[in-house]
Amino acid sequence: MDKLSPIIAFVVFMGVFVLSRTPVRDFLESWVALEGVILGLASLVASMGVAALAAGAVLYVSRLITGE
Q1: Does residue 35 or residue 1 have the better pLDDT?
Q2: Please, what is the end-to-end C-alpha distance for the chain in angstroms?
Q3: Calpha distance 51→24 (Å, rounded)
């Protein structure tokens, strides 16, 4: 499980990043007065943050399961 959990976390990171791009962009567009490149960069950073939290949760749960 120790060798498999980073791979699973990476797949989760990529999946959450791809799936959260449009909802995050729509949310930022409706709540903050951003446009164009600034909106794109803000949604990129926010999506990366959400994906990093999800990948970190996967790694944390794998550590809890393995008992480290």
Answers
A1: 35
A2: 12
A3: 11
DSSP of the chain: -TTTHHHHHHHHHHHHHHHHHHHHHHHHHHHS---HHHHHHHHHHHHHHHHHHHHHHHHHHHHHHHT-
pLDDT in tens, 30-65: 888 878 888 889 999 999 999 999 999 999 999 988
Pairwise CA distance, residues 20 & 26, whole Å: 10
pTM confidence score: 0.84
Which residues touch 61 (CB under 8 Å, ≥6 apart)? none
Torsion of CA 41, 50, 26, 19, to 10 degrees: 110
